[in-house]
Task: structure prediction
Amino acid sequence: MQTEIKGVRPTIGFAFCGSYCVFDKAIAALRGTADSCDVIPIMSGNAAGTDTRFGKAEDFRARITEICGREPITTIVGAEPIGPKKLLDLLVIAPATGNTIAKLANGISDTSVTLAYKAHLRNGRPIVIAVSSNDALSQNAANLGILLNRGNHFFVPYGQDDAANKPTSLVADFELLPATIAAALNGKQLQPILTEGGRV
Result:
């Protein structure tokens, strides 16, 4: 992945929201990203503190900390300096849940992830979104459309992960995240943006 900016490794914010079923895929993508970028991890309160059938929050935090070499930002106070200090060259939100997508589209900043987004947005630098939402093609379709039309926003290519049983669900292809980052750093959307999808 060619990610250097004028010969310097970019600094990437990598924000996790609570779509726990894709955490393993997101962490694998994080590991690939950390090979060529300096990564500041961010986790929403739910992502950082909720145990589910997909794993313990403590274990996920430990894996993320090991990859990045630093503890994740988990509070609004911790995320606020991202804007004024211009800490990031690019912000990734992966996975981006329907709840988070709705908040981003409507200017709500009440978690560490949505505040990181707001703080980074003020600097006019790229944002990469990896959608993972059961309602992306129903009540959240309008919010997804808002973000697709918002400048400097780039999407990890996505598709329906189980069209027969979950016809309104969309999930990003996390294997394409490093390539999406590389394209976004050059102001390009990785294409095609619609994929065949894959079961989660």
